[in-house]
Amino acid sequence: MKATRKFAVQKLESEIGFTLIEVLVVIAIIAILAALILAALSHANATGQSTACLSNLRQLQSGYLMYADENEDALPPNISRQVQFNQVNVAGSWALGNAQVDVNTTNIQNGVMFRYVGATGVYQCPADASTVRNQPGLLRTRSYSIQTYLNDDVISGTTLDYVDDSPFDLRKYSRIVNPPPSRLWVFIDEHELSIDDGIFALPNATAWPGTPFWGAFPTYRHNNGANVSFADGHVEHHRWRYHRTLTSYGPGLVETPVANNDDLADWQWLQDGVPKSP
């Protein structure tokens, strides 16, 4: 009887063509391949988003330069005022409003740069999934800011206000000399928690020596990096050395000391691209 059962099992296995162990091995291989494919697709999607973000910045930088060409060398203004509890860009700025509370693209279209850019979608990074404050179903319309020392005019009640009277606050494109346009950065992909008006708040170590600190934070959504444009028109992706997890920010300007040597290296990389001479 046992021999008959053994023969029946062997016959069944031969008819099926696979043993149970072989089937489990095949399933495991399929699972591994699926995981690899999904990881590859995710990486490809992230790479595509970063490429699109760089294209956005290239268009913004082109509009920035066209504005200077048509306005007697003047850089697009970055005029920020405190309105109630929000820091907002006001009339005459490259873009208006506050990225955290703007519910449509009106403040982008009313900015002095829009006529040279022509598309509201260019102002938002495709990887930026942040939403308007208190409206979780509504995506924000702007992901980028301009560094502090380029035609900045701010009243915030914070240490950022010193920039207005600083000789390092450049008003004309022709004053971009040290560093030269190829090394002075303009637009940056700003972290969704710190972005508000159109200014990326960063102290100038030449004008403000002392303990290095962050006033605003760049994004980390592009493979632990951010995308940046430069005054000569080119754009770059820069990967940060420090892996920051930012969970809260504000309100107002937050002066956060650098965390460690890697964070200091990231801060210094941005410092290398701010004005060093009046």
What characteristics describe this protein?
single chain; 278 residues; alpha+beta; globular
SSE topology:
Layout: H1 2-16, H2 20-70, E1 78-83, E2 86-89, H3 106-109, H4 114-117, E3 131-132, E4 135-139, E5 144-147, E6 152-155, E7 185-189, E8 199-200, E9 213-214, E10 225-230, E11 235-239, E12 256-257, H5 261-271
Parallel strand pairs: 1-6, 5-8
Antiparallel strand pairs: 1-2, 3-4, 5-7, 7-10, 9-12, 10-11
Task: Give the gist of this structure.
With 278 residues, the chain is an alpha+beta fold. The protein has one domain.
- Strand percentage, roughly? 15-25%
Report on the biggest sheet: 5 strands, mixed
Roughly what percent helix?
A: 25-40%
* Number of domain units: 1
Described by the principal axes of the CA atoms, the overall outline is globular
- Uncertain runs are none
Tell me the distance between the termini: 100 Å
Structural features, described:
- This protein has helices spanning 2-16, 20-70, 106-109, 114-117, 261-271; strands spanning 78-83, 86-89, 131-132, 135-139, 144-147, 152-155, 185-189, 199-200, 213-214, 225-230, 235-239, 256-257.
- It is an alpha+beta fold.
- The chain has one domain.
- A five-stranded mixed beta sheet has the order 8-5-7-10-11, covered by helices on one side.
- The radius of gyration is 26 Å and the shape is globular.
